[in-house]
Design a protein that fits this description.
single chain; 227 residues; alpha/beta; Rossmann fold; six-stranded mixed beta sheet; four-stranded antiparallel beta sheet; 10 strands; 35% helix; globular; binds adenosine-5'-triphosphate; binds magnesium ion
Length: 227
C-alpha cells in the first residue's frame, strides 16, 4: 500500500471564540499502488485539509498517517520534504507555476534538490516527452504568462509527474478551467495514472471529473463516505 489513514481527526480552535471546529472526524482508508480515488464534498467540508494531511503538508490532531507502511510521525522534516518531492506529485487549482521561469524550468523545479547529473539529463528528456504528450512541446521556452489557463494546468501536470511519483494529489485541478480544458486535464490525469500505475487522488467539485477518475467518495460532516 502507499497511503493508509487511521482514524484521522483534525480540529481547529477559533482564536476569537475559542470554539473547537472538528473538520475531520475519524477518517480511515487505504490507497494501494496504482489505485485512483476522487473526493467530492461541499465547500468547507475539509477536502483540502484532508489532501494536505495525506501529502504530509499538514498534521492531523490525532490519528496516524502511514506512507509505505511507515508512520510519518516517525520522519523528520528533511525526510518528509524528500518524500514530498520525490514520491508525491501535487497539482493545485491554480497551477502555481513561477511566472519568471519558462515552461521547461518550471517543470524541472522538483528535480533541483536531486544532485545526480544523469538523473537531471534524463529528466529533461522526460519533460520533453511529456510536453509532446500534452501538446506543448513548441511552448517549452515560453513563460506561464504567455500561456492559457488550460495550458498552464497541463504544464503543472507535467511538473507533478517529472520525478515519476508513486502518488499524485490534485486539489481541484480543473476548478479554474472551461469545460473543454477541464475535460482534457481530467483525461490526462486518468491516462497518466493508468499508464504509469500511479496512485491518484483528485479532490473536485465537478461530478464530471469525479466520474472520469472513479472510486468516488464524499466528504461530509467530517466523514468520508463511498458514494
Ligand atoms: N489554518 C486553519 N485555521 C482554522 N481553520 C481552518 C484552517 N484551514 C482550514 N480551516 C477550516 O477548515 C474547514 C475546511 O477547510 P478546507 O479548506 O479543507 O475545505 P474544502 O473542502 O477544501 O473547501 P473548498 O471546496 O472551498 O476548497 C473550513 O471551515 C476552514 O475554515
Ligand atoms: Mg479546498
Amino acid at each position: 500500500m502507499i497511503t493508509e489513514l487511521h482514524n484521522i481527526n483534525k480540529d481547529y480552535i477559533n482564536n476569537v471564540s475559542g470554539v473547537k471546529h472538528e473538520v475531520l472526524k475519524g477518517i480511515s482508508f487505504t490507497l494501494n499502488n496504482g489505485e485512483a480515488m476522487s473526493i467530492v464534498g461541499p465547500s468547507g467540508s475539509g477536502k483540502s485539509t484532508l489532501l494536505n494531511i495525506i501529502g504530509t503538508m499538514d498534521k492531523p490532531t490525532s490519528g496516524a498517517v502511514k506512507l509505505y507502511g511507515n508512520e510519518i510521525s516517525d520522519y523528520n522534516e528533511t525526510q518528509l520534504a524528500e518524500i514530498r518531492n520525490q514520491k508525491i506529485g501535487f497539482i493545485f487549482q491554480s497551477h502555481h507555476l513561477l511566472p519568471q521561469l519558462n515552461v521547461l524550468e518550471n517543470i524541472l523545479l522538483p528535480t533541483i534538490p536531486i544532485k545526480d547529473k544523469l538523473y537531471k539529463k534524463l529528466a529533461v528528456e522526460r519533460a520533453k516527452k511529456l510536453l509532446i504528450r500534452v501538446g506543448l512541446v513548441d511552448n517549452i521556452h515560453q513563460l506561464p504568462g504567455e500561456l492559457s489557463g488550460g495550458e498552464c494546468q497541463r504544464v503543472a501536470v507535467v511538473r507533478a509527474l517529472i520525478n515519476e511519483p508513486d502518488l499524485i494529489l490534485a486539489d481541484e485541478p480543473t476548478g479554474s478551467l472551461d469545460e473543454e480544458s477541464a475535460a482534457s486535464i481530467g483525461k490526462l490525469l486518468f491516462e497518466m495514472h493508468k499508464e504509469n500505475n500511479t496512485a491518484l487522488i483528485v479532490v473536485t467539485h465537478s461530478l464530471k471529473l469525479a466520474n472520469t477518475i472513479g472510486n468516488i467518495h464524499k466528504l461530509t460532516g467530517g466523514m468520508l463516505i463511498s458514494a
